[in-house]
Amino acid sequence: MKKTNAVRLLEGRGVVFELWNYEVDPEDVSAKAVAAKIGLAPERIFKTLVARGDKSGIMLACVPGDSELDLKALAAASGNKKAEMVHMKEIQPLTGYIRGGVSPLGTKKPFPVYIDESAFAYDRICVSAGARGVQIFISPLDLTGVTGARRARLAKHE
Fold first, then answer.
1. What pLDDT score was predicted for residue 2?
2. pLDDT given at position 153
3. Where do the DSSP E strands lie in 3-157?
4. Residues 106-117: pLDDT tens digits?
5. DSSP at 56
6. Which residues of the chain have pLDDT under 50?
7. What is the model's pLDDT at position 116?
8. pLDDT given at position 140
9. Residues 52 and 88: beta-carbon distance below 8 Å
10. Do residues 90 and 50 make contact, with C-beta atoms less than 8 angstroms apart?
11. How far apart are CA 47 and CA 65, in angstroms?
12. In angstroms, rounded to a whole number, what is the distance separating the alpha carbons of residues 30 and 102?
């Protein structure tokens, strides 16, 4: 497999992680589908969502696969009055990644990252490696250290 920017970044920093591969169903790139394919609970698969704050601009939010992003909570955590999801067509030009393969690591430009505090209940979680079909299994503390992520309560459970 070709190395993604996320993998290169972690290797360059000497961070311990594992890569987990799975077969992609282009019709269902949801975190729940990924969890089922790799045999991990959906709450340990963290999807990376791209949002825009009215003051801060683009930011990334990592929330468990069994939840939705609470945009009001993200706005509050990021010092914005409001936050909204970016349109799907903006994701790749902004991050360099496609929907279903957005990683909090190795984006085209560094963006602020916010991670739901539930991640820290686990020794390791999964995030996208920057391509559909590949996940990074990593310590949430290491992920936070590399990305500079801020912890916040961001998840609304479905």
1. 65
2. 97
3. 18-21, 46-53, 57-64, 67-69, 83-85, 113-116, 125-131, 134-138, 150-152, 155-157
4. 999 999 999 999
5. T
6. none
7. 98
8. 98
9. no
10. yes
11. 6
12. 12
pTM (two decimals): 0.94
Q: Which DSSP state fits 39?
A: T
At 121, list the tokens: 């209940």
Which residue reads 């975190």 in tokens?
A: 31
Helical segments of the chain, H only: 5-13, 31-38, 71-78, 88-95, 140-147
Question: What structural domains and CATH numbers belong to the chain?
Answer: 5-157 (3.90.960.10)
Are 17 and 138 in contact by the 8 Å Cβ rule? The answer is: yes
Query: How far is it, in rounded angstroms, from Cα 142 to Cα 124?
Result: 9
Cα–Cα dist 80/97, whole Å: 25
pLDDT at 157: 76
